[in-house]
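Fold this sequence, please.
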Amino acid sequence: MGFTIEDMLVVSQEKYQMDLVAGKNGWSNSISWILLLEDLTIIRHFSGKELAVTTGLGFQEEEKLLSLAEELNSKNAAGLVVNTGFYVKDLPESVISFCDRNDLPLLTVPWDVYLADMIKDLSIRIFLQGSTDEQITAAMIRAIENPEEPGLYRNDLLPWFDTDGTFQVFLISTGDLDKMDTVERKRLTYRIQLSLTNISHNASFFYYDSCFVLIVNDIDEPATLQIVEEFLDRAAKRLPDYPVYIGAGSQMTDLSSLHISYKRAKAASFVALRDKKHLVRFDDMGILRLFYSVEDHALLSEMSTGILKPLIDYDAEHDSEYVRTLDLYLKYDESIQAVASEMFTHRNTVMYRLKNIRALLNTDFKSPDEKLALRIACLIRNM
């Protein structure tokens, strides 16, 4: 998940006397680069995840320092480091409060710290962690694509993850990621990462096959679900122009099973996008789990189209809704009133349709096996 605010504090608390004053919930923010600034000019070029460092020369007044924090937050910066003791003696309460409300890490280093050395040191660490993350991403993709060849990925991930532990995949989409250019998608990547809290090096985050992929390692499911729900809350505020849909795969044990969680997350992601639900868990999908696990799509098509063909043909010719009427009739345990309410039509209309459906299918809906076959056909058709 990159070089984070937490990583920086581990390195800098003693070495540079760095202190996290506010925005503590942003501890897992990853840092793309460090920039020294004394005015707001350069901020317009921020693409996200930058860490701003200032001596306070251009932000000595409270209003100017608050404006700096507001601009950084709007540009999805990773955080702000203020070199206190000369131009800025003490951080104003208004700035501290703003950073706390927006989970923007606000840090201080004392005036006697030589900023050039600190920035050089941390920038090297950011670069090295970025290279490591690229290697981790490549190995994770190999684990998804070639699970039967552990030599391609296990040793590369062993230093960073408990490869014998649990893994769970989440696929995050906005529905139109393929339509974005590389720059726009990169910026969205940064904004999504900054919305993921309480997670850092026991996870991997990357873009793959038209989705953002989040893989968590050795985090129990209740904690993982809380992380995802908190992410959705933050995303609603940080990403108002992008509806977020998440498909959650099953938690699996051992890295060799990562591909199973990925495939299940893919199925859940499809349902989330189709139904416009912010979160769909594969484990909550009932009998659909079985259908989405079948890789023989021709078989599924035969099971659906074959038995329903008379209704499909009739709907195509008469612009009717016989297939949907049957689907709802079986879904609601043969309740005429429930079907009428769902379809916003009179119950007599539903009864007339069902009479024709019985004739077209040559059935009276008495046989449990026959009703099960029809229900399964409808479920597959809705996939």
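The chain has three domains: 5-123, 161-292, 297-381. The first helix runs from residue 5 to 15.
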